[in-house]
Amino acid sequence: MLKFLSRVRIEFNALDPRTASCLEFLAQCNATKAKESNPGCAVQVKRRTDDEPPKITVTFVNGVEEVFDATATPAQSIRNMILEKGQLLETEQMFRDAGEAWPVIPAEELHQPSPGTKPRKAEEKKQ
């Protein structure tokens, strides 16, 4: 999971009962396998004393940053999202290394109907 990230910042108040997701995610980040996958990933923990909700901020290796409300998002969901985006990053990098343009499918073609499908009529769209 950490191999796709350059930084993880976990913020929570230790006395707040809503910290379960932060603590679980921190445990996943501190696992030996995760650390070995990317020793350069900085895992920062900020213990707060205010009533701010717990949050997890991840920065992907391409610089994109995402912030998660840890009160509403389970640690496993955050982990799955990171893995999905990581696979997309790997795929994109493979195409770039091969000298291919990214995205492979031009945007204007993404919205065209597929062969063998019938376009919906205006009346059907309204329903």
From TrEMBL:
Pfam families: MRP_L53 (PF10780). Residues 105-127 are annotated as: Disordered. This is Large ribosomal subunit protein mL53. It is found in: Mitochondrion. Its main location: mitochondrion. Belongs to the mitochondrion-specific ribosomal protein mL53 family. InterPro entries: mtLSU_mL53, Ribosomal_mL53. It comes from Rubus argutus. The keyword Transit peptide applies. The keyword Metal-binding does not apply. Keywords: Mitochondrion, Ribonucleoprotein, Ribosomal protein, Transit peptide. One of its GO terms (cellular component) is mitochondrial large ribosomal subunit.
